[in-house]
Amino acid sequence: MAKIRGAIVVDTVTCKGCSLCVEACPTDVIRLADEVNGKGYNFAYMFNPEACIGCANCAMVCPDSCITVYKMKVEETV
Amino acid sequence: MAIDIKDIIKPENLVYSKSSLLTNRPMHYCPGCSHGVVNKIIAEVIEELGIQEDVIGVAPVGCSVLMYNYIEVDWHEAAHGRAPAVGTGIKRLLPEKYVFTYQGDGDCAAIGTAETIHACNRGENIVMVFINNGIYGMTGGQMAPTTLQGMKASTCPFGRDVQRDGNPLKMTDIVATLPGTCYVTRQAVHTAAAVRKTKKAIIKAFENQKNKKGTSFVEVVSTCNSGWKMTPMESNKWMEANMFPFYPLGDLKNE
Ligand SMILES: Cc1ncc(C[n+]2csc(CCOP(=O)(O)OP(=O)(O)O)c2C)c(N)n1
Ligand code: SF4
Ligand code: SF4
Ligand code: SF4
Ligand SMILES: [Mg+2]
Description:
Chain A has one domain: 2-Layer Sandwich (Alpha-Beta Plaits), CATH 3.30.70.20. In chain A, 13% of the residues lie in helices and 31% in strands. Chain A has helices at residues 20-24, 57-61; strands spanning 2-10, 30-32, 44-46, 67-75. In chain A, 45% of the residues are buried. In chain B, the strands form two sheets. In chain B, strands 3-2-4-5-9-8-10 form a seven-stranded mixed sheet, sandwiched between helices. In chain B, α2 packs across α8 (192-210) and α4 packs across α5. Chain B starts with a helix and ends with a strand. Chain A binds chain B through residues 5-7, 9, 14, 16-20, 23-24, 41, 46, 49-50, 54-65, 67-72, 74, 76, and chain B through 1, 3, 5, 7-10, 13-19, 22, 26-27, 29-37, 40, 189-192, 195-196, 231-233, 236. β4 (67-75) of chain A pairs antiparallel with β1 (14-16) of chain B, so a sheet runs across the interface.
């Protein structure tokens, strides 16, 4: 069975830790890091990468255009 | 499942990346501010329509005063509230260009009320984007004409009192009644679905200008989390509960 897998790359330097992407993700992939970036913001990262479906909702709502989204079909062998 | 993240993150799997029309300057907006989302949408629309060389933006006074730093098109700065007048002049001199104005509610619906109404009434063939966060964000969160009844601002810390401060103003409803406007809509950017709709609205507005249909007016009901003194997420919830009932989303006019 084919399954969709996605992944995001966050520009952690420009991320302002607003957390709008966390709220927008339908599969709870994103969290804010405990560490901070150079501006002192807790940046977003993939906490639960297996759950990403590459829907790009997170990237759509990001005010600072920090998120790049990738998506591919994966053939599952059971 | 033995699929590595590195196998997914490859150029052939790319589905969304930052618009090439956005510069690499970090935006000065507060974390979570709606301005960043709308700036990005406008960049994407101009890129997708392939009209980068033909667009002239008119930036306002307000938090988006530095917007010309972020989108790689030609720009003109306007004095507070005068963007529709400046846009009128540019469009009349250079009718083959696409002209858009971008204004906050203090700019568009307070100090610039006359310019807004008359540009829309004349039916200037421009796109007007109106960011309504119900407050003067830039200057410290003062009450605006758009501030809701009971809504707190730095100059009405106990909430807007209609007896004392007058009624909140629906600029979008006003311009929808004017014969010069062809398309008047109210959108938001608090969810991915809302962002997609706003993008469609702004595409339509630019297409109307291409077809010389008159003024297209796109309000985006927005948050100012710093001025509202809430987190970005709380601001979105507050906007849904309080702003949307008074400023309902949807098309007011589509001719
Ligand atoms: C002629 C003039 N009057 C007043 C000001 C002060 N001022 C700067 S921005 C602003 C209001 C901005 O509010 P809004 O248009 O809603 O933009 P926001 O920052 O909320 O996006 C005011 C009153 C000014 N710059 N020029
Ligand atoms: S692409 Fe979709 S599923 Fe993946 S992190 Fe973003 S919102 Fe979540
Ligand atoms: S929406 Fe953008 S700026 Fe905000 S936390 Fe997510 S990646 Fe960072
Ligand atoms: S003050 Fe308000 S409108 Fe201005 S950048 Fe901050 S959140 Fe945005
Ligand atoms: Mg405002």
